[in-house]
Amino acid sequence: MHKNLVITFTRNPELGKVKTRLAKTIGNISALAIYKKLLEHTESVLQQIDSDKAVYYSVKIRENDLWNADIYQKQQQSGDHLGVRMSNAFKTGFDSGYTKIVIVGSDLYDLKPEHINQAFDALDNNDAVIGPAIDGGYYLLGMKQLHPAIFENKSWGTETVFEDTMKDLVKENVFLLEPLNDVDTYEDMSNNQTLKALIEHDKTNK
């Protein structure tokens, strides 16, 4: 077993159930196509990381999908809200013997392998590492031990999550990665021609 673990959370890619804020602007079909593209990008990035890998499913574990079971540990998210689900995923990892765990979002077209590698390296000399998202959340969180407080009393999905998390870690050494843009609204992807092309393709097939 590798000592490092990288985790990503995914929603099962179903029409009308993913990227709902984005879908209000571009429709459910295009929103699903874009989410699938983001998942493919995330998987291609994680493939390049020299660590163990786990994918946590939102609804149920899927076999024979994008995530190869020979490469990825397949797990079910558990908990009433995102904070509990992430806390449980970290606890499972640490209980399994991993010494560094990083979780990344699955909706970042700007995510690169070097962001995750930098996070693991930063944990050599820091207690935690965070990749801030431009919308006020975070796209990456890494730790060497569980800090339960950072998963509690947060307004998940709002612009205060990163700031509130930093307050919980005020006594720890925290390394910050560069801010990145996750894709939740049309404005988030307005300069990304690859993702915008999926909307145009959708329009031509209606």
TrEMBL record:
Q: Which PANTHER family match?
A: GLYCOSYLTRANSFERASE, SLL1095 PROTEIN
What NCBIfam families is this protein classified in? glyco_like_cofC
One Pfam annotation, family name? DUF2064
- Descriptive protein name: TIGR04282 family arsenosugar biosynthesis glycosyltransferase
Q: Which Gene3D superfamilies match?
A: Spore Coat Polysaccharide Biosynthesis Protein SpsA, Chain A
**Species name for this entry?**
Olleya sediminilitoris
Record-linked SUPFAM superfamilies: Nucleotide-diphospho-sugar transferases
